[in-house]
Each structure stands twice: as structure tokens, then as C-alpha cells.
Amino acid sequence: MTDDKLPGEEKTVSDPVTGPEAAPKAGVEREDAQADPALTPVVPVAPKPVTTRKGMWSEGSGDTSGYGRIVRAVDWPAPSVPPFGSWYDQVHDRLALLVADPFIKVVLDRGELTFHVPREKLVEVMQSLRDDAQLRFEFCASVSGVHYPDDAGAELHVVYHLQSMTHNRRLRVEVSCPDADPHVPSVIATYPAADWHERETWDMFGIIFDGHPHLTRILMPDDWVGHPQRKDYPLGGIPIEYKGTTVPPVDARRSYR
Predict the structure, then answer these.
(1) How do residues 173-227 score in pLDDT, each as one tens digit?
(2) pTM
(3) Single residue among 58, 77, 96 that ends a domain in this structure
(4) Domain check: are 73 and 85 in the same one?
(5) Alpha-carbon distance 114 to 168, whole Å?
(6) What is the CATH number of the domain that holds 88?
(7) Residue 150 lies in a domain
(8) In this predicted model, what pLDDT tens digit does every residue of 44-67 receive, in sequence order?
(9) Are 61 and 55 spatial neighbours (Cβ–Cβ below 8 Å)?
(10) Count of alpha carbons within 13 Å of 139, Cβ hemisphere only?
(11) How many C-beta atoms surround the C-beta of residue 80 within 10 A?
(12) Residue 101 and residue 226 in one domain
């Protein structure tokens, strides 16, 4: 190899240099530098992906951005095992003491603790989280639906965001149900603020909250077919006519219980 080329000219290498002086840690910027094994991150084995997304936004849309070749696997966060650290262990252990077998799995990801619970345990778990003096998650900030078409047997998920104003903590509770049986117990007897959140989740995702006093659409017309935030819902091409129609008051609408 010759070193008589000017700066900016293409360099050629016949034999890669493997000595320590060529490693990135030495700060030597060379085109033949070899990666230092001590600095190479160990990539953990990823869990089975939920789905694979192509392109920058969604598969099937017109792509003029140049990002059409992006392929990205969407993975489930891996289940976590105690000890979790901080206050997470206290809440986990306390709930396990109050409710028999309350967890399908526990996930601590990006600083958020999520309890995945069976739907038959949901009401008991939520009441324990609210009423126990060591837990005191008094406020349910939101109830959100999620649709995972590739999660066979658990395609529909409901996520509850809870806050303890007594202890200044936040917690997520997640429950799932199959598309063939989209039923989840209502929690408004424990958290009355969840009333309209559950109605919106039914409207957008078609999840039926058993025990809700009046489950009805609140965003779409009462006779609307389908649930627009499901991932398999068609985008566009749906005939819509609002002129000349009337929307009955909530107490006069169809009940979906």
C-alpha cells in the first residue's frame, strides 16, 4: 500500500491490518480498521415478532418517499422477572398477595411497569389496586383499545393507565380477548371515569365491556357498520351520508349489552 495519495483521493488496501493500532478504540480512522470485539455489543435474542411492517408508514400505500424498502419487525417486549427495582417490587408482591394468580406476565419496559392480567381477574385486580392502602391507584386516566391481528387468540387488547396520587406512581394494566369472543368486564364500578372511555373503545374496536350500564357508540353514527380503528378496517371507499340524518340522544340509542 502506498501513502503518496492526496487527501480526499480514494485509498486502496491489499491486506487488512488487524493489529491493536487499527481498532476503533485506538482512535485511528483507517479504511482497513477492524472492529474491536470488546466494543462490539452483544445483541440479545429477540422475541417472536408480532408482525412485520414494510415501508415508512403502512404497506399498500403509494410510496414516493424512498422508504419503501424498509422492513421492520414489531416485537413484544420481553417478560420481566423480579426483582424489578424501585417501587415496582412492592406493588408486584402486594398484588400477588391480595389476588391469587393475578399475572399472565409482567413487563418492565422503558421505565413503565405493565401487569398483563387474565380478563376473569380484571375486576378483582382493579379493585385491589384502588382500595389497598399500600397500592392506592385511585385514578384511571384512560382506557385504550389495541388491535393485533396476528396475535392469534388474543387479537384485541385493552390497556388501563392508572395513577396513585397518594404514592405518586403510574401503572399500566393490560388485558386481552380473542376476536371471536370480544368480551372484557367493565371496570366502571371501580373507576366511574372509565365510563366514556369504555364506550369509545367499543365504538372504535368492537370490544364489549360486560356490565357497562349503557354501552353505545359515541363517535360514529349509531347504525355504523364496523369499528374504524381495527387494523383490518378498510381505508376509504366507504359510502358515507350525513345530510338529512339525525343522531338520537345517548339514552335513546341502541344498547349493545
Answers:
(1) 999 999 999 999 999 999 999 999 999 999 999 999 999 999 999 999 888 889 9
(2) 0.70
(3) 77
(4) no
(5) 16
(6) 3.30.460.80
(7) yes
(8) 445 556 667 666 555 555 555 556
(9) yes
(10) 9
(11) 16
(12) yes
